[in-house]
Design goal:
Arc Repressor Mutant, subunit A, about 40% helix, 5-stranded parallel β-sheet, 4-stranded antiparallel β-sheet, Rossmann fold, 8 helices
Length: about 220
């Protein structure tokens, strides 16, 4: 389940966003204190952030800048100010999108979905249970160890993680590899899945990839 961090000081909007996100199948987290937002963000490491521009004693655009120094977590700026200069500034500071209150819930959810789908391919790091997946280094890491994945293993794992809790057919995984110019046959896919399972087990996650007979695989 994807986690979304709500950084918004108006209680009514906090609750409204949380309910909307929960109903859409997301894990919604509300940040209720604003003293050390950047550190809280890095500790919680959500999949996406909804960040208000106007926070008590702080400017959301400055917070955006601080987060961007250390993380590429997707951020949507949410504001009541319909000001073109704010939108330009936010996007120049690294915001992934910008939406003005009162927003259309359906449009906001569609934007969130689109950003999450494309962000998996461009983030330097992903989270899975207690593991950090370092896409640049091609590793999975926990507190005690770093395990190296091959290019094919990383492509397969990233795709399964992007579609977590959904059954992915073998053909779909093969297509994902072909789109990355990695041409492997059906037997090679089986071998790569087996090796990936073993490496996840070594990292402390057993039974991570489940085979659904006649259907494909699912990352739990």
């Amino acid at each position: 389940m994807k986690s979304i961090l709500i950084i918004e000081d108006e209680k009514s909007i906090q609750i409204e966003l949380q309910e909307m996100l929960k109903n859409a199948g997301y894990h919604a987290i509300i940040l209720n204190h604003f003293q050390n937002i950047k550190n809280d963000v890095l500790e919680l490491f959500p999949d996406l952030i909804l960040l208000d521009i106007n926070l008590p004693g702080q400017n959301g655009e400055m917070i955006l800048q601080e987060i961007r120094k250390e993380s590429n977590i997707p951020i949507i700026m949410v504001t009541s100010r319909n000001n073109e200069s704010d939108e330009v500034l936010s996007m120049s500071y690294g915001a992934d999108d910008y939406i003005v209150k009162p927003y259309n819930p359906t449009i906001l959810l569609l934007r969130i979905e689109a950003i999450l789908k494309r962000s998996v391919r461009f983030q330097d790091q992903l989270k899975y249970h207690n593991l950090t997946i370092n896409l640049k280094r091609g590793t999975i890491e926990n507190k005690d160890q770093e395990i190296i994945l091959t290019k094919n293993e990383m492509i397969i794992f990233s795709y399964l993680l992007e579609n977590k809790n959904r059954i992915i057919s073998r053909d779909e995984l093969m297509t994902s590899l072909w789109n990355s110019n990695e041409y492997i046959n059906d037997n090679a896919l089986t071998v790569n899945i087996s090796r990936l399972r073993n490496k996840l087990k070594e990292a402390g996650i057993e039974n991570a990839i489940e085979t659904r007979k006649g259907l494909g695989y699912i990352l739990l």
